[in-house]
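Annotated sample (chain length 288).
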Amino acid sequence: MAEIKLVELLTLEKIEQGLFRGQSWDLGFRALFGGQVLGQALAAAQLTLPDNRVAHSFHSYFLLPGDANQPVLFDVENVRDGRSFSTRRIKAIQNGKNIFYMTASFQTPEEGLEHQYAQMPDVPAPESIEPDIKFYEKYMDDMSVRMRETLSYHRPIDTRTVQAIDPFKPQIHEPKRYIWMKAQEVLDGNVNINQTMLAYASDYHFLGTCLQPHGIPVRNKNLRMATIDHAMWFHHPFDFDDWLLYCAQSPFTGGARGLVRGQFFNRQGKLVASTMQEGLMRQISEKS
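Output written by the structure step:
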């Protein structure tokens, strides 16, 4: 199989003014990978902006499961272009139904008051940690045929989990997870593509952090998980073709929902982005 490039997934086809189409990847999940919709929606909004405006935040809701075997349409509404900020509302559509909404805000970069009250944890360097994909390759015989066929679509982002948890042998752990991540492609400092790729990657292993105190694997047949909403803030420019540490923590689960928050640090310990997500975590009986 030819090398799969994430930049191609995040490059959208313009259909008409404010309307774009993105292709889909099947990552072997029950539905379309949420990170794909996040990254493509942000990419669609970027295509409608004045020059020199970059994303500083987005807030999104997942309304319906997406189909990984169909493309996604993105309808971008220009809400406002001010002197330094722009706002866009993006609607993702499949089969004539709205599956996702995002409101994204963009700013012309400027200087201002600055502080960081967040500390990067002391963890082993990514070079000393085995890539997550190698772990799953060892268990290919235990995977479904569909998952084996889609494994290659997980390669464009190199993820390396500190103290990785074996999903085939679930145990109880603290509700926190540290993951080194970087894109496998050379991004040449392009701010827009760095942000869309990080938006894509921000959904990797995120909600699953909520399950760790309960000792339940993500692929439990009696578990239904789905992202409800996802928000992200970009604090500083970054190079995602170098390593970033994704620190995820779950402060709460309850009411069949889980809440998780994340921080991205570069190798120098600078906080470059933050995330929040709430998702469905519903246990069902075998007869359901």
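Annotation: The radius of gyration is 19 Å.
Annotation: The first strand starts at residue 13 and ends at 16.
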